[in-house]
Amino acid sequence: MSKTELHHSKTNVRVSEEQTSLKGTLTSVFLLGFFLIFTWVSVYFLFLHRL
Which pTM value belongs to this model? Predict the structure, then answer.
């Protein structure tokens, strides 16, 4: 059996010094989540009220 050789090539990976802020994304996700929860709870109470 022959040996397989792995050749590692050196690549320069540039690391971005800028870091993107995800505060807006987090805020949007929370607002959407609260809206969905509020909607589901409202429909649930509407269902209970009409029972």
Answer: 0.57
